[in-house]
Design brief:
Layout: H1 3-18, H2 21-30, H3 35-56, H4 65-88, H5 94-101, H6 104-115, H7 122-138, H8 149-168, H9 172-175, H10 179-197, H11 213-238, H12 240-246, H13 249-260, H14 268-299
Helix pairs in contact: 1-11, 1-12, 1-13, 2-11, 3-10, 3-11, 4-8, 4-10, 5-8, 6-8, 6-12, 7-14, 10-11, 11-12
Length: about 300
């Protein structure tokens, strides 16, 4: 498997696992836990998992002094994105929050075009449009309710933080840091935010329901360890913009579990949204091949020198 194929596969896995956040978090909310406590345990349980992976792979915990500040910044950005997303669940349905979160691929594309001179191709813009159209169809609201401005603001803040993180981990200084080591320090520095927010344990809420600890472990494993690792590696393989567009698969995870686990109906509207998203993902993956074929086809019909 070549590097790009690995990148697209990892980006797909990252998106699918990150979309599991509501699946595991909402039952914990219903049990009385708040976002700060849920995220405290999510990061606290993920850190030792990452440490074991570093040792198992024979990697080093050592980083250069000049890498510490960028790693701390990446950790704060990811923690802020997690916090604002989980807080938004208190103001709107998780599905709506996930829908709003998906503006981050646009933010990534715009930031890369404005500040890093990445060319915003017509194919990329078409993929973003298709994906956003599909995401819009996945939203099953009645259409008459007024969305909370606080909830919208939190979801937008989550999207912006995540967009900057995706761009940041692709900068030259951090590209040389092994993926597992980078993810470990992102989690470690991010954990400090939640440690402060629970007042070093004094405001920490712990579930009394034993089986919900499975949700906390699942949060640490799937949308945290697996998703963060795959996201970082995918960005290094295929770049920030394609990785961000692959994030369109995140809401599909919610649809999948909604139908499979909670018995929700798979309507024609949802099917249309899924087709649009999969079309966007397929185009971004096959983009280079499509472009090369179009160039070859165009060369078969050179312009005639009409005056």
């Amino acid at each position: 498997m070549n590097t790009k194929a690995k990148g697209y596969l990892l980006g797909t896995i990252a998106a699918a696992t990150y979309g599991m956040n509501p699946l595991f978090a909402l039952p914990l909310y219903k049990d009385g836990m708040n976002p700060d406590s849920v995220l405290f345990f999510r990061y606290a349980l993920a850190i030792p998992i990452m440490a074991c992976m570093i040792k198992a792979r024979g990697r080093s915990f050592k980083v250069r002094p000049q890498e510490v500040l960028p790693l701390a910044l990446m950790g704060m950005l990811m923690a802020l994105s997690s916090l604002t997303l989980f807080l938004s669940y208190n103001y709107m349905d998780a599905g709506i929050a996930s829908t709003l979160l998906f503006v981050y691929p646009i933010m990534v594309a715009v930031i890369m075009a404005l500040f890093f001179r990445e060319k915003l191709t017509k194919l990329t813009m078409a993929c973003i449009f298709l994906a956003l159209s599909g995401i819009g169809l996945l939203y099953q609201g009645d259409g008459g309710e007024t969305l909370s401005l606080i909830g919208i603001g939190l979801a937008m803040a989550s999207a912006l933080s995540y967009a900057i993180y995706i761009i940041g981990v692709n900068r030259p200084m951090l590209k040389v840091v092994p993926t597992v080591t980078l993810t470990f320090y992102v989690l470690l520095f991010g954990f400090t935010l939640f440690l402060v927010r629970v007042d070093f344990g004094r405001d920490l809420l712990i579930t009394d329901t034993w089986y919900l600890w499975g949700n906390l472990i699942a949060l640490a494993l799937f949308p945290t360890v697996i998703s963060f690792l795959c996201t970082t590696q995918a960005i290094q393989y295929i770049g920030p913009t394609p990785t961000a567009i692959l994030g369109a698969l995140e809401p599909l995870t919610a649809i999948f579990f909604g139908v499979l686990v909670f018995g929700e109906a798979l309507t024609p509207r949802l099917c249309t949204g899924i087709v649009l998203i999969l079309s966007a993902v397929t185009l971004i993956i096959a983009g280079n091949n499509i472009s090369s074929h179009l160039v070859r086809f165009r060369k078969l019909f050179p312009r005639l020198p009409f005056k």
